[in-house]
């Protein structure tokens, strides 16, 4: 970044007092999507931004939203005992009398229990008859419900993997956003509840000791509800149509201070600060506060992606996802989130602000990451984490045990950490909207592609060849190294820089939908774990299938098509990167 004075002035303007004010307001609002408190929060955002002269528009749309109402779990055999439990959003209600069935424990055969899912889950049910039974499992993600349902279970009990005495609110559906006629078939059809690890251990021991029968009752309030989505934009001066999208979910379980009132406060403060320096920005910053995150499986960000797809495709430079910053004790920045082309940017800015060595991981399929199909590079998701010994197995709040519970109140936020995290976000966004050439770097992305393909080829052995795409990945890596080296020492005229940036944007639009999705540009994959280059992931198991079996030829056909999809994306990315290099070379 060339303008050091702008950087220092903008970061110095970030105010702890302003964000503290926002947190106090949010601490009085239980922001269930589509509820009166949710709309009060929208009104507060609009009034605050309007007070600074920041243009803001509120969109209204209908979404399938689900509120958990209540649940009851009682064993009948071998003994009568009540277990405290909670049902989940978009879990179906049982009949008023509940369902009575045998309870079967399904242990995890491979992988790690958690709420984000695991590709090995389907193996858990092999050799275990769960038809007509209630499953108890350590799997906490929507895929747990999905595979139990497929196996014929009539209900699911999730025993939490970490031992906090809290039951975390959750959503059961794997359907990302508002369902389509096709994806509606994936909505949960069996009721599910959560219990603590302690109670889960008791139930599992009962199952291991003999027959267990239980009665399970659940009630949810699921309906089409009107949602409101506020969006504001701080205009740049040279290319106002180009923008970084800064988004975070507005809805919360209870008052949700660290998930995600702290994120809402950070976004509001960034809007105020960037507006103050708007005459020194080349490009724009767009801010959105998503509804439908916890109660509609990211339906707000998905609606926005669907309805502004062309604008996002043509103009969105990056998505800065803000979720759970500013948590008490969150001093570990070793797992920041960024796609490959933004890893250098995120690590550099975080290290500059924290004076720590910071590292990045690939984004997971969660938390309003709704823009992969559109080809928008993503940076951040969760921010810092609590130390491992003080961290629960939860999906946010920096690993805080209070996540998605009534205990996520003001004392769980740390305003000094929130200021630090907001500075990290702000510096990364500032680089995106003020640097002459966008701060994309491709060498690490290229290595990740090549390493992944090599891994898949080793697993496939001679059952399927990835030689075509591995060769193209090698050519892309050569161009990536050349680009990254050249951009560090190149000064380009403004018109040339714009041309370079257009080519770089095309690289992302080519690669991201293939590297991160199976559904492609216009649809959403399910909210379950997604491997890198998911379309070719099946290459890992093709050699385990009999070469004369239908399953082998089905998978071979799919892999061939996915190889073509990646080959085209890599070939086009090479062309665009080569054109960017040519412009920087003065050709």
From TrEMBL:
Q: Which domain of life is it from?
A: Bacteria
Q: What Gene3D superfamilies does this protein map onto? A: 3.50.30.30, Zn peptidases
Q: Peptidase M28 domain: which residues? A: 231-418
SUPFAM superfamilies tied to this protein: PA domain, Zn-dependent exopeptidases
MF terms from GO for this chain are:
carboxypeptidase activity
Any single Pfam family the record assigns to this protein: PA
Q: Which residues belong to any copy of the PA domain?
A: 101-203
**Name recorded for this polypeptide:** M28 family peptidase
Query: Source species, please?
Result: Candidatus Fermentithermobacillus carboniphilus
């Amino acid at each position: 970044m060339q303008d050091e004075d702008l950087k220092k002035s903008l970061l110095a303007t970030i105010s702890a007092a302003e964000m503290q004010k926002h947190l106090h307001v949010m601490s009085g609002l239980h922001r269930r999507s589509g509820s009166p408190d949710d709309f009060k929060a929208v009104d507060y955002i609009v009034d605050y931004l309007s007070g600074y002269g920041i243009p803001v528009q509120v969109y209204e749309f209908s979404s399938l939203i689900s509120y958990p109402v209540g649940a009851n779990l009682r064993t009948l055999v071998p003994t009568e005992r009540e277990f405290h439990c909670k049902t989940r959003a978009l879990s179906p209600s049982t009949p008023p009398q509940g369902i009575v069935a045998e309870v079967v424990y399904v242990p995890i055969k491979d992988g790690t229990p958690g709420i984000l899912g695991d590709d090995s889950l389907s193996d858990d049910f092999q050799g275990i008859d769960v038809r007509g039974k209630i499953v108890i499992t350590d799997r906490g993600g929507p895929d747990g419900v999905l595979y139990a349902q497929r196996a014929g279970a009539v209900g699911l009990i999730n025993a939490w993997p970490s031992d906090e005495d809290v039951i975390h609110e959750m959503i059961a559906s794997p359907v990302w956003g508002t369902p389509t006629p096709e994806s509606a078939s994936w909505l949960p059809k069996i009721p599910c509840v959560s219990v603590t690890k302690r109670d889960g251990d008791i139930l599992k021991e009962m199952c291991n000791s003999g027959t267990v029968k239980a009665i399970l009752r659940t009630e949810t309030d699921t309906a089409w509800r009107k949602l409101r989505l506020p969006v504001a934009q701080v205009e740049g001066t040279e290319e106002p149509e180009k923008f970084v999208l800064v988004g975070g979910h507005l809805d919360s379980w209870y008052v949700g201070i660290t998930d995600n009132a702290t994120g809402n406060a950070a976004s509001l403060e960034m809007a105020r600060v960037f507006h103050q320096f708007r005459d020194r920005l080349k490009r724009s910053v767009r801010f959105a506060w998503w509804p439908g995150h916890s109660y509609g499986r990211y339906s707000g960000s998905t609606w926005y992606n669907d309805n502004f797809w062309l604008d996002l495709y043509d103009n969105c430079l990056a998505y800065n996802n803000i979720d759970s910053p500013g948590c008490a004790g969150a001093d570990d920045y070793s797992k920041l989130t960024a796609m490959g082309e933004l890893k250098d940017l995120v690590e550099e800015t975080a290290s500059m602000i924290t004076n720590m060595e910071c590292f990045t991981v690939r984004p997971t399929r969660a938390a309003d990451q709704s823009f992969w199909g559109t080809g928008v590079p993503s940076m951040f998701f969760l921010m810092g984490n609590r130390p491992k010994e003080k961290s629960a197995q939860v999906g946010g709040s920096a690993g805080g045990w209070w996540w998605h519970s009534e205990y996520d109140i003001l004392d769980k936020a740390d305003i000094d950490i929130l200021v630090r995290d907001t500075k990290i976000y702000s510096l990364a966004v500032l680089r995106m909207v003020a640097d002459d050439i966008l701060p994309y770097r491709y060498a690490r992305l290229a290595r990740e592609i090549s390493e992944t393909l090599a891994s898949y080829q080793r697993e496939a052995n001679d059952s399927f060849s990835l030689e075509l795409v591995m060769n193209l990945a090698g050519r892309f890596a050569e161009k990536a190294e050349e680009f990254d080296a050249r951009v560090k020492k190149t000064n380009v005229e403004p018109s040339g820089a714009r041309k370079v940036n257009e080519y770089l944007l095309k690289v992302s639009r080519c690669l991201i939908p293939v590297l991160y999705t199976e559904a492609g540009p216009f649809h959403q994959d399910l909210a379950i774990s997604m491997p890198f280059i998911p379309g070719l992931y099946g290459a890992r198991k093709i050699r385990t299938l009999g070469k004369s079996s239908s399953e082998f030829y089905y998978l071979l056909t799919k892999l061939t098509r996915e190889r073509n999809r990646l080959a085209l994306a890599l070939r086009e990315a090479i062309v665009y990167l080569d054109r960017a290099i040519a412009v920087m070379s003065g050709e």
